């Protein structure tokens, strides 16, 4: 029988404005059959204990980096030894006396650029791994080996790597060797969902991998206007409207937003879409010559256009996620346009930051 931990909040805490900082949390803990190992149970409880440190963080930020910034080392990745590929490979070959089969694997890593190859050790065990970083998605690949009697030889990777063919540790999913609660483990931290982090933890003891377990941490959503750019409009009122509409859209992308549609407004919306497609309206957040702090200033292709009324004016609003290249941010971009002389001129641009406002629960599975 294992312990599954779940933190239940008052319903009001689902909305950041109704959840005060001193809100009382109640922990529902019950003994029931579970596949969760003790390492995952310990991590789930630790996240609940540290929930104050995990408030208001960005959706893509690994929880271990947040905790370590608070001098918390419960999740403790090995920082490793990073150098150019030839130096790292030479170290394994010459100092660890790599076996022929390991040397064959290392040859494939010889041309990696500086900073793309790191040598890790799993705690104080005899297990090591070469981590290579590849592609614009910043994918991590690991080559495992053990050092026994002064000789390095290939070693089995954790089952989670074998199961996924080592291909799922990219962009918002981070993998590392280190310790969890002081014990050696291989950890995969999946942050691909805005309001959820899923840890895969595989313990290592007595020269072999243990059974993989999981911890799911869930958060409520928070929103704030992170950047504002205005020209000829009440910026405070527009910013407030932008945030309200982004919150509604995030909760229900199919919700009807803005003012009622008329035939003229529908024609203007179609024209603005055509202008954007043809490049006559810039496909980025209007900044009026200022430099945005975020590089995610392109509107995603799913951005919507609808009318809003501000200061008695009917304007067209554009709302969507920010992008750069193939990457899409959880944050929202909101722009306002005024129809003028057969064209459209921007009057405001806002970036609404989406955060993980409050830890709602941490469940060991």
Polypeptide structure, described:
With 365 residues, the protein is α+β, with helices and mostly antiparallel strands. The chain folds into two domains: 35-211, no CATH class; 223-355, no CATH class. The chain has helices at residues 38-49, 63-69, 85-95, 100-107, 159-163, 235-251, 263-278, and strands at 2-8, 26-32, 75-77, 81-83, 117-121, 127-134, 139-148, 151-154, 173-180, 183-193, 196-205, 208-209, 213-230, 298-299, 304-310, 313-324, 327-340, 343-364. The strands form three sheets. Strands 3, 9, 10, 11, 12, 13, 14, 15, 16, 17 and 18 form an eleven-stranded antiparallel sheet that branches. A five-stranded antiparallel sheet has the order 4-5-6-7-8, covered by helices on one side. It starts with a strand and ends with a strand.
Beta strand count = 18
Termini gap:
12 Å
State the low-pLDDT regions, or none: 1-34
Q: Mean pLDDT across all residues, rounded? A: 88
The SSE order reads: EEHHEEHHEEEEHEEEEEHHEEEEE
Secondary structure: helix percent: 10-25%
Strand content: 35-45%
CA gyration radius, whole angstroms: 25 Å
Shape: elongated
Major sheet summary line: 11 strands, antiparallel
Question: How many helical stretches?
Answer: 7
Total separate domains: 2
* Alpha-beta classification: alpha+beta
List keywords for this structure.
disordered N terminus, 365 residues, single chain, elongated, five-stranded antiparallel β-sheet, alpha+beta
Element layout with pairings:
Layout: E1 2-8, E2 26-32, H1 38-49, H2 63-69, E3 75-77, E4 81-83, H3 85-95, H4 100-107, E5 117-121, E6 127-134, E7 139-148, E8 151-154, H5 159-163, E9 173-180, E10 183-193, E11 196-205, E12 208-209, E13 213-230, H6 235-251, H7 263-278, E14 298-299, E15 304-310, E16 313-324, E17 327-340, E18 343-364
Antiparallel strand pairs: 1-2, 3-9, 4-5, 5-6, 6-7, 7-8, 9-10, 10-11, 11-12, 11-13, 13-18, 14-16, 15-16, 16-17, 17-18
């Amino acid at each position: 029988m294992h312990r599954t931990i779940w933190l239940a909040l008052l319903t009001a805490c689902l909305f950041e404005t109704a959840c005060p900082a001193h809100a009382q949390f109640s922990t529902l803990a019950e003994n029931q059959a579970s596949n969760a190992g003790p390492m995952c149970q310990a991590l789930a409880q630790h996240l609940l204990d540290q929930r104050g440190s995990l408030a208001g963080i960005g959706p893509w930020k690994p929880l271990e980096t947040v905790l370590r910034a608070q001098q918390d080392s419960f999740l403790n990745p090995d920082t490793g030894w990073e150098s150019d590929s030839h130096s790292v490979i030479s170290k394994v070959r010459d100092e660890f006396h790599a076996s022929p089969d390991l040397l064959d694997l290392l040859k494939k890593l010889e041309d990696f650029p500086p900073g793309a190859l790191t040598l890790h050790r799993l705690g104080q065990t005899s297990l090591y791994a070469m981590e290579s970083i590849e592609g614009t998605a910043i994918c991590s690949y690991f080559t495992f080996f053990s050092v026994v009697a002064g000789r390095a030889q290939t070693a089995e990777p954790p089952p989670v790597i074998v199961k996924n063919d080592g291909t799922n540790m990219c962009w918002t999913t981070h993998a590392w060797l280190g310790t969890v609660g002081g014990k050696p483990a291989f950890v995969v931290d999946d942050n691909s969902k805005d309001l959820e982090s899923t840890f895969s933890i595989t313990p290592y003891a007595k020269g072999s991998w243990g059974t993989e377990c999981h911890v799911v941490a869930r958060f409520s959503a928070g929103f704030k206007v992170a950047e504002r750019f205005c020209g000829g409009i009440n910026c405070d009122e527009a910013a407030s409207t932008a945030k309200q509409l982004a919150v509604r859209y995030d909760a229900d992308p199919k919700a009807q937003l803005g003012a009622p549609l008329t035939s003229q407004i529908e024609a203007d919306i179609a024209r603005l879409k055509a202008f954007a497609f043809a490049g006559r309206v810039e496909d980025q957040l209007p900044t009026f010559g200022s430099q945005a702090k975020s590089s995610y200033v392109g509107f995603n292709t799913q951005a919507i256009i609808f009318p809003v009324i501000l200061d008695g004016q009917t304007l067209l609003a554009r709302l969507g996620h920010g992008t750069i290249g193939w990457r899409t941010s959880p944050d929202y971009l909101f722009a306002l346009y005024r129809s003028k002389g057969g064209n459209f001129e921007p009057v405001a641009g806002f970036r609404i930051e989406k955060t993980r406002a409050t830890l709602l629960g941490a469940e060991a599975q």
